[in-house]
């Protein structure tokens, strides 16, 4: 199935550094979501974006919905060890048949060095 | 805090056996989703329910997979017979209604030997 392209694929950073990752799509989405997944667990929602150009923060996390509606980025400021995990972007489509579809990115694995 | 409950957390089975996974969505959530996540990839939707009705099962391999949500609350996903390539994490999610934010359970990790 279709997946969104995320970059970088993985990052190894020092504690306290800022982190930036992005997500691009060939299709337009009306809602962008960012999830974090720890090993052996399900994805946990971090931020939801509903409008092109929107910039939203959640604590040390900031995400933006690209104005073309085909991309989004996530920034994490002052990283800490518990930020370790895999970050997924996801685009939400409302389908004409009445359902909706969440298309996930390929994931960015974040590792933090103490 | 309300959660999506899934069981079992882990399942090991031999190929050609039948397996079943159970999901209890957040109370009041009308829409329920089953996803499959292969290691190193993002989740991919298998089937979506609105109350007790299937609204999208276009990605469900119907020759061996089945899903039901008989009373519009909890749901079961079944694989019969299991194949080696079915080894993956099976995630359940729910949302208040279509188009709303999806909340995920912890998943069932399936290993087919």
Compile the SSE list and pairings:
The complex is a heterodimer of chains A (114) and B (113).
Chain A: E1 5-7, E2 10-14, E3 19-24, E4 31-37, E5 44-49, E6 55-58, E7 61-65, E8 71-76, E9 85-94, E10 100-104, E11 108-113
Parallel strand pairs in A: 2-11
Antiparallel strand pairs in A: 1-3, 3-8, 4-5, 4-9, 6-7, 7-8, 9-10, 9-11
Chain B: E1 5-7, E2 10-13, E3 19-24, E4 31-37, E5 44-50, E6 53-56, E7 65-68, E8 75-79, E9 88-95, E10 103-104, E11 108-112
Parallel strand pairs in B: 2-11
Antiparallel strand pairs in B: 1-3, 3-8, 4-5, 4-9, 5-6, 7-8, 9-10, 9-11
Description:
The complex is a heterodimer of chains A (about 110) and B (about 110). Chain A has about 110 residues and is mainly beta. Chain A has strands spanning about 5, 10-15, 20-25, 30-35, 45-50, 55-60, 60-65, 70-75, 85-95, 100-105, 110-114. In chain A, strands 2, 4, 5, 9, 10 and 11 form a 6-stranded mixed beta sheet that branches. In chain A, strands 1-3-8-7-6 form a 5-stranded antiparallel beta sheet, with no helix packed on it. Chain B contains no helices and 11 strands. At the A-B interface, strand 4, strand 5, strand 9 and strand 10 of A face strand 5 and strand 10 of B.
Number of helices of chain A: 0
Task: Give the topology string of chain A: H per helix, E per strand.
Answer: EEEEEEEEEEE
How far is the first residue's CA from the last residue's CA of chain B? 36 Å
Major sheet summary line of chain B:
7 strands, mixed
Low-confidence stretches of chain B: none
Biggest interface goes to: A-B, 28 and 27 residues
Strand content of chain A: over 45%
């Amino acid at each position: 199935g279709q997946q969104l392209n995320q970059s970088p694929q993985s990052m190894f950073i020092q504690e306290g550094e800022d982190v930036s990752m992005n997500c691009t799509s060939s299709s337009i989405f009306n809602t962008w979501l960012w999830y974090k997944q720890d090993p052996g667990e399900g994805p946990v929602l971090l931020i939801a974006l509903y409008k092109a150009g929107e910039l939203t923060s959640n604590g040390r996390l900031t995400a933006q919905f690209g104005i073309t509606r085909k991309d989004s980025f996530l920034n994490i400021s002052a990283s800490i060890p518990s930020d370790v995990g895999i970050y997924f972007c996801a685009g939400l489509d409302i389908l004409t048949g009445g359902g909706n579809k969440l298309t996930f990115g390929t994931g960015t694995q974040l590792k933090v060095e103490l | 805090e309300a959660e999506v409950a899934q069981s079992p957390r882990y399942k090991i089975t031999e190929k050609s056996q039948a397996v079943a996974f159970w999901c209890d969505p957040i109370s009041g959530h009308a829409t329920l989703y089953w996803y499959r996540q292969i290691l190193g990839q993002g989740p991919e939707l298998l089937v979506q329910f609105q109350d007790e009705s299937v609204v999208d099962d276009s990605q469900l391999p119907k020759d061996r997979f089945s899903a039901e949500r008989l009373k519009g609350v909890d749901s079961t996903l079944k694989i019969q017979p299991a194949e080696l390539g079915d080894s993956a994490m099976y995630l359940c999610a729910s949302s208040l209604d279509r188009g709303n934010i999806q909340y995920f359970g912890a998943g069932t990790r399936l290993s087919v030997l």
